[in-house]
Amino acid sequence: MKLIDKEGKVFGIINVIDLSVLLLVLLVAVGVGYKYSQKSQQTQNVTVEFQVMVPHIRPEIAKAIKIGDKMVQGTSYTSVVVKDVQIKPGYSVNVDAKGQRVESYDPYLVDIYVTNTGKTTLSSASIAMGGQDIRAGKEYFVKSRDYEFKGEIVAVSVKE
């Protein structure tokens, strides 16, 4: 008995094209079922707290950030809220007359450390809140209805 006969049937039972379509539909169904079953098993609700450092801002502008401010994405509010604001002298590294790098503080600018918090659902290997990825070293826009600053995330804490 041949595997495929003269009429193109496998073992004389089913056409090769029909078998291919049937296997394709079966593989897609298994893949979709696997994807949705895995996603629902791995989701968990957590509270995420992260600190953003916004460097070299004029002091009068820095006062715009208030505890309790809600962050926005586009034209909508998000679940991210300002928990704490620290204003520190503007740190910088400069080169002196001898060509040596020296630490100094800018007398005209400040650095802002904004601690944000919010609840999110973890369903993958990344944390997303308010339309932005949350990881240390990543750029983050501290953005409310009244202001927008570009900073860098310096610390992330996940609380289950």
- The whole-angstrom Rg is 28 Å
Fraction of residues in β-strands: over 45%
Helix proportion of residues, in percent? 10-25%
Alpha plus pi helix count: 2
**Average pLDDT level:** 89
Number of domains: 2
Total number of beta strands: 10
Report the oligomer.
single chain
Q: SSE order, as H and E? A: EEHEHEEEEEEE
Which segments are poorly predicted (pLDDT under 50) over 5 or more consecutive residues? none
Instruction: Decide which structural class fits the backbone.
Output: alpha+beta
Sheet of most strands:
6 strands, antiparallel
Globally, the shape reads: elongated
Order of strands, widest sheet: 4-5-6-3-10-9
Q: What gap, in angstroms, lies between the N and C termini?
A: 62 Å
Can you tell me about this structure?
This protein has two domains: 9-41; 44-159. The protein has two helices and ten strands, in the order ββαβαβββββββ. A hairpin with a 2-residue loop joins strand 4 and strand 5 (76-95). 19% of the residues lie in helices and 53% in strands. The mean pLDDT is 89. The protein has helices spanning 16-42, 59-62, and strands spanning 9-10, 14-15, 44-57, 70-73, 76-95, 101-122, 128-129, 132-133, 139-143, 148-159. The strands form three sheets. Strands 4-5-6-3-10-9 form a six-stranded antiparallel β-sheet. The protein has a two-stranded antiparallel ribbon with strand order 1-2. A two-stranded antiparallel sheet has the order 7-8. It is α+β, with helices and mostly antiparallel strands and 160 residues long.
